[in-house]
Write a structure and sequence with these properties.
Helix content: 40-55%
Strand order of the largest sheet: 2-1-3-4-5
Radius of gyration: 14 Å
Number of domains: 1
Largest sheet: 5 strands, parallel
Order of helices and strands: EHEHEHEHEH
Number of strands: 5
Strand content: 15-25%
CATH topology: Rossmann fold
CATH class: Alpha Beta
CATH architecture: 3-Layer(aba) Sandwich
Distance between the termini: 30 Å
CATH superfamily: Response regulator
Length: 139
């Protein structure tokens, strides 16, 4: 069995969307841990190592901004990518101020998400990504 391309923490309270993202990323070879609320995402992050975090902003218990702050208190190296319906400039800026590396507005194209994940993992120095996958997908 091939080693996963990376371990991703996915914090998404929409069960259907969470399943689709998790399933799609696993098909691409990533190991994905899905949490349905912010506090469980913090708890999972504290118990395991992740190569990248995908965070929704609006979640029960703790919002994505709070989760990002907690992650940044422990690591400034793990890439954080927000997936959110919050599209106002002030929300994006708040996301970046809390430690996000990138921000995708819902709805989004899966290929764009996949490319951003690859770019963030490449920049964070994840050598498990084969060289052929480190570059953009053809159109």
């Amino acid at each position: 069995m091939m080693a996963p391309k990376g371990k991703i923490l996915l914090a998404e309270d929409d069960t259907s969307l969470g399943f689709v993202i998790k399933d799609s990323l696993e098909i691409e070879g990533y190991e994905v841990v899905h949490c349905a609320d912010g506090q469980s995402a913090i708890d999972r992050f504290n118990k395991s190592e992740f190569d990248l975090c995908l965070l929704d902003v609006m979640m029960p218990n703790k919002d994505g901004f709070t989760v990002a702050k907690k992650i940044r208190q422990q690591s400034d190296l793990v890439p954080i990518l927000f997936l959110t319906a919050k599209s106002l400039e002030e929300d994006k800026l708040k996301g970046f101020h809390t430690g996000a590396d990138d921000y995708i507005i819902k709805p989004f194209e899966f290929r764009e998400l996949l490319m951003k994940i690859r770019v963030l993992l490449r920049r964070s120095g994840d050598t498990r990504i084969p060289p052929a996958l480190r570059h953009p997908l053809p159109p």
